[in-house]
Amino acid sequence: MDSATLKEEDSNSASTAGVSKLLMEAFVLGKEPLVDRAHCALFSRPGLGGHPHAIVAWLHYYADCTEILRKATEIQRIKIRDMTFSVFPDHTPKRHRIDPKAFRWAQTMRLAVEEINQNPVLLQNHTLGYKIFDSCGYPLTAQRAVLSMLNGVSEENSSMCTNASSLLAVLGAYGSSQSIVLSRTLQTFRIPMISYGSTCACLSDRQKYPTFFRVLPSDDYQVKAFAQLLVHFNWTWVGLLRGDNDYGHFAAKGLLRELQDTKVCVAYQEIIPLLYTRQAGLRIMKPSVKVMRSSTAKVVLVFAVEGEMTPFLRDYMTQNITGIQWVASNAWVKASVFSGREYYSYLGGTIGFSIRIGHISRLGDFLQTVNPKRYPDNELVHELWESLYGCSPFPSSVTQMPPCSGQESLLEQHSAYMNTSSPRFSYNVYKAVYAIAHSLHNLLLCQPGRGPFQNNSCAQSNNIQHWQLQHYLQEVNFQIGDEEVAFDAKGDSVPYYDIINWQRGTEGNIEFVNVGLFDGTKTIGEELLIQEDRIMWAGHQSEASLSVCSASCLPGSRKAVRRGEPICCFDCVPCDSGKINNQTNSVDCTICPEDFWSNSDRTVCIAKKVEYLTFDSLGIALTVMSVVGACFTLAVCGVFFCHRHTAIVRVNNSELSFFILFALTLCFLCSLLFIGKPTYWSCMLRHTAFSIIFSLCISCILGKTLVVLAAFTATRPGHNIMKWLGPKQQRTIIFSCTLVQVVICAAWLIDAPPFPSRNTQYEHSKIIVECSVGSSLAFWCVLGYIGLQACLCFVLAFLARKLPGNFNEAKFITFSMLIFSAVWLAFIPAYISSPGNYADAVESFAILASSFGLLFCLFAPKSYIILLKPEKNTKQHLMGKDKK
């Protein structure tokens, strides 16, 4: 490549501006990356041609560097402006670039130590000392640093510690992976360590990490908070994204364990690669994007750190997916790198848990005191200045940076270092230092003979053992501001989280707004306190997104899990008749009590409708028929009484006729007993009265049949049967036949009388109040006896049908018995198959039909002659002896 393209300042250098523009064009960046310094190196190329330039550049921002290296790995060979070249990351050993945030944490520790050493009460006559080692964010580097501390290796050119002292405790590290390595190394020497940023639940294992403490809650509490948040907003179908490290692994594992006892399911789980590249990001994003766009899982939980989320979210934004409700872990919920206005349409509405923010009154002023002029020998301060200002307070041929005074003012724009408005990890560092100081203070206050160690001994102030300090750390309890600092049996702190919501600021950027609190010290179910009216959700909505696999089953239905799918995916099945459900998403429907039934919506049990034969349309019809029948019978009786001296009345035995009319009147009226709500007395009366009255009626007809048969037989020579069928004998026959029925009914009432019952089996939605016969045998006996009497009447009348005479009553008795038998034979199947009140109606109708049949067959012809053909109402005509 022609070096002139880069506006060379001399033969061995390239301008930073030229390299910045070249990188922006080559990698299609949104803005020019800031380049600290750049130069050209000349290498020979085999064959003909000139000497290509190798450009070496130090990038200012870590995020830009990450994106460029990632794209360089993907593209490998880049061609622009007719030039082709390759990009390679520099693997040569170089000085580690400083992290301004981590440097702020170190200065916070210095401030806390200064305050303690100046405190006239805390640690009197003792001074705290410290050494600072850089872990560079890597576990192996952290292990190398702690081994250096244990071996007594001092840092060169360090003005912070003039004399090495005995190491009593270690403050750090930030990442869980680093803390795991450090704790395993230190536990051999029983040296306690306090972390200000490691939240992995695995570090709560006292068997594996007996000397580990932390001034922030374990992820066990964070996942409990996450689970309660999901349940609170009814998010039952969610996605899970985590980093490929101990923090992400154990947090996701803990969350899945916590969700087992809830109704929340994880729709998908993806891992952000440790060595992130665009191809790897798109590979995990491809199925996730498909799910995000098509699935109803609109809530995505993320357990990752800021550095992992930065490249992932930049690739995610290229997919143009909106409407996702992000739920952030404390590791990135307040990451200022995402506060730009370009992130709002994708990340606005994010909600998550943050460790509580504290206040350090002197921190801002203390940070302002750090500058290269005050600490000219401190290389970390030099690197801080180079990182913040892009200049060197002490220019050299190595840095090749423009010079500056080293007394520049630290402004708010240097938020990575100067952000003290809401210190989280800085505040944790502050608490950790004070925890060590208070533990040492309590240790030194120990009075001999009252100590916690063997034989009530105390620690020696000039020879403090690590395990002795650990004992006091475990017991320490003090206040900083309004917050209590203490450790539980696992070395964890009191679990407090602020609930943070990402909202649009006045300038379009993202602001982190506190909308609630999770207090792990409260009873289960009361830990979560949310001000929902202050939350702004994804898509700038005022209501929480719906994130479910299946829509909620409304009251009146139940959930039916789909085969082979998670329990969160289900169908809604309406409750069966007689069952209700008045809750949402219920698994079962509740059976209504026996006297209740479900309403049409299956949401409430209502009293069953009680049915019996009432005076409704059917009951009124039967009543009218009964009254009309009784009136007809009384009318016939009146006619017969008025014409009782006429031949047709006298010839047909007027006494038996009046008995029959009286019985028929009672038959018509007894049908009224079947209408109305059954009671104990009405049930006994309706069946016994009906059976006795009908038996009386049939007995009278039987007597009349015998009289007719005897009367015509007596006219034959040698027959004098009428003397055995006089009025007394007729009454005896009627009484005897009726008495048998009375005896059967009496036995029925004594043994198992009819009683009212509530039938809920035939129609489950109703209660049919009916009369149970009590004894089925007795019921069919009384009917059978009536049937026997009717058959006997029929047989006798049939035998007398051809006897001489113009008015042979046997014919009409035969026909009446045919009708009577037909009615009651039809009654049996109809009665058995009819439910409840219809059975009563069938029986009542059978009584009325048979009564009308008897009335008309027996008395209509006689009434016709009496009223319309009086000339035939003579003895001669009736005997067939009238003159032709």
Query: Kindly, what is the distance between the CA atoms of the first and last residues, rounded to a whole number of angstroms?
Result: 154 Å
Mean pLDDT: 79
How much of the sequence lies in strands comes to: 5-15%
Which shape, going by the Cα principal axes?
rod-shaped
Oligomer: single chain
> What is the helix tally?
24
Tell me the radius of gyration.
Answer: 53 Å
Tell me the major beta sheet: 8 strands, mixed
Specify the helix fraction band: 40-55%
Strand order of the largest sheet: 9-8-10-11-12-15-16-17
Instruction: Give the uncertain stretches in residue-range form.
Output: 1-12, 41-52, 60-64, 89-96, 155-165
List how many beta strands DSSP finds.
Answer: 26
Structural class: alpha/beta
Summarize this, please?
Helix 14 (425-444) packs across helix 15 (466-475), helix 20 (727-751) packs antiparallel against helix 21 and helix 21 (776-799) packs antiparallel against helix 22 (809-833).
Q: How would you sum up this structure, described in words?
A:
The protein is α/β, with parallel strands linked by helices and 884 residues long. It is 42% helix and 14% strand. An 8-stranded mixed sheet has the order 9-8-10-11-12-15-16-17, sandwiched between helices. Strands 5-6-7 form a 3-stranded parallel sheet. Strands 24-26-25 form a 3-stranded mixed sheet. It is rod-shaped and about 160 Å long. The protein starts with 15 loop residues before the first helix and ends in a 6-residue tail after the last helix. 38% of the residues are buried.
